[in-house]
Each structure stands twice: as structure tokens, then as C-alpha cells.
Amino acid sequence: MSEVSFSLSGELPHWEYENLKQEKGDIVVFKEAFLLDRRPGPASMHGTESAQPVSAVGRLSLSWRNGTGNFFGEPDFETETITVPFKS
After folding, report:
1. Alpha-carbon distance 86 to 88, whole Å?
2. Fewer Cβ within 10 Å of end Cβ, the chain: N or C?
3. Tally of domains in the chain
């Protein structure tokens, strides 16, 4: 699935991963005017880490996707989402 998201306001801390072996992601903070352009494939992993900071103000964005599955509650969320059981 391809995903494009443009941040209109606010902020969202997010983590990027090169692959499944990277146990700690590289933090990226989506702020106003940030453009995310994510293409399909395993090299485009991103997500959150437990016990890490979350946004104090939230984020407003416009998103375009050519499929479903990476938002909670979507019917194919389980097949599109990878949960990696890293050691704490």
C-alpha cells in the first residue's frame, strides 16, 4: 500500500525502522508542513514504541492511501500490521 500524508498542524512523534532487525527505531517528529510519502515494501516500516513520548497537542493531517490495513479497526489491520516483540 502507498500512503501520502501532509501535516497541517500539531505534531506526532513516530519511529522509522530500516527492517525487522532494528530493535530501536529512529524518531521522526511529524510537524506542520511535514510530508510523508511512503511506498509499499518492507523497507517502509514505521510505528510507535511503548513507553515513548506521544504528542501533547495531537496532529491534524490530510492522508491519501491506495489501500487499507494500517489503521486500527480496518478489516485487514492484522495482515498489514507487524508487531515485533522486542526485549524491553
Report:
1. 6
2. C
3. 1
**Residue 14 lies inside a defined structural domain of this protein:** yes
Could you give phi then psi for residue 33, rounded to 5 degrees?
A: 75, 10
Please check whether residue 86 lies inside any domain of the structure: no
pLDDT tens-digit readout, 10-20: 998 888 888 77
Cα 23 from Cα 17, distance rounded (Å): 8
Question: Strands (DSSP E) along 23-85, which ranges?
Answer: 26-31, 35-38, 45-47, 59-65
> Can you give the pTM of this predicted structure?
0.70
Q: Which domain, by its residues, includes 39?
A: 3-80
pLDDT of residue 7: 96
C-alpha cell at 56: 501533547
